[in-house]
């Protein structure tokens, strides 16, 4: 991985592993270009290219502000009739340019995560 950007307590690195997320046994996202985002003191989190999310992202009224990442817009994640409310968010106007085209899927709302073909539990491997 190579460091792309850092702002305050946030660091973004481009990954090279294949990452997949599932909801109700259905594929939500499949990417070979995940980003790992660290915000001290938390574990790293995946942010995925929006183009690699195959589930429908339905915008909802919820927003939140992060001093380091900007304003988040939230989405319900819908795949084959199953909905995970407010299970995705993005920062389209982030001061971190590398975040603008990425979406974060709530780890706990997804049933299964894979790095390559290995199940991943609790948080991404760095």
UniProtKB/TrEMBL annotation:
Superkingdom, natural source: Bacteria
InterPro entries: DUF427, DUF427_sf
Record domain DUF427: where: 19-97
Membrane-traversing stretches: none
PANTHER family: DUF427 DOMAIN-CONTAINING PROTEIN (PTHR43058:SF1), SLR0655 PROTEIN (PTHR43058)
The protein's name: DUF427 domain-containing protein
Species in which this protein is naturally found: Candidatus Frankia alpina
